[in-house]
């Protein structure tokens, strides 16, 4: 048996052990032994079409002008309302439609009392329910996220979004 061969194997084992120990230490330092599962209060930033607040969120895209708004997805912890507001100088204004939403995740169709118009700006907002399943803007208040911001998404009416979603 060649002594140089066994020396190389020993050296390889030593280097391998050092690398493994270094990786374990690095992993512990980076992750601090914490679980990789986020808590209920953690959420992802909402630079897209969704408002994400853990248990309550809404996803809506631009809509074809008309008397119906299709909400792609609503997730609510407790049953409540999706409310559509017209624009009032860059803020949610007059309520033009609302729809009941059961707890959980679902798409929602909101029939409007006033149609959306080409190039109009609108707001889809989540509201609570006071327990009577009848929408009352004075009692069924907007839901807020952990930072105190109202959970809503801005969308626009445009005939450019495609004929496949006409209401």
Short description:
By secondary structure, the chain is α+β, with helices and mostly antiparallel strands. 17% of the residues lie in helices and 33% in strands.
For this entry, give a set of tags.
alpha+beta; 167 residues
Helices and strands in order, then pairings?
Blueprint: H1 3-31, E1 50-52, E2 57-59, E3 68-76, E4 80-88, E5 91-101, E6 104-111, E7 121-127, E8 152-156
Antiparallel strand pairs: 1-2, 2-3, 3-6, 4-5, 4-7, 7-8
Detailed description of the structure:
With 167 residues, the protein is an alpha+beta fold. Helix content is 17%, strand content 33%. It has one helix and eight strands; from the N terminus they run αββββββββ. The protein has one helix spanning 3-31, and strands at residues 50-52, 57-59, 68-76, 80-88, 91-101, 104-111, 121-127, 152-156. The strands form two sheets. It has a four-stranded antiparallel beta sheet with strand order 1-2-3-6, with no helix packed on it. It has a four-stranded antiparallel beta sheet with strand order 5-4-7-8, with no helix packed on it. A hairpin with an 8-residue loop joins β2 (57-59) and β3. The longest helix has 29 residues, at 3-31.
């Amino acid at each position: 048996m060649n002594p140089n061969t066994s020396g190389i194997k020993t050296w390889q084992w030593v280097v391998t052990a050092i690398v493994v120990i270094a990786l374990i230490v690095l992993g512990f330092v980076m992750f601090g032994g914490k679980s990789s599962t986020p808590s209920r209060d953690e959420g992802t930033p909402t630079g897209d079409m969704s408002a994400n607040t853990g248990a309550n969120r809404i996803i809506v895209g631009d809509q074809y002008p008309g008397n119906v708004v299709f909400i792609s997805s609503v997730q609510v912890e407790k049953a409540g309302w999706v409310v559509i507001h017209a624009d009032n100088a860059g803020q949610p204004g007059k309520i033009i439609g609302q729809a009941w939403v059961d707890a959980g995740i679902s798409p929602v169709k909101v029939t409007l009392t006033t149609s959306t118009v080409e190039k109009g700006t609108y707001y889809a907002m989540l509201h609570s329910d006071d327990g009577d399943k009848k929408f009352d803007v004075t009692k069924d208040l907007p839901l807020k996220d952990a930072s105190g911001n109202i959970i809503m998404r801005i969308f626009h009416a445009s005939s450019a979004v495609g004929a496949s979603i006409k209401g």
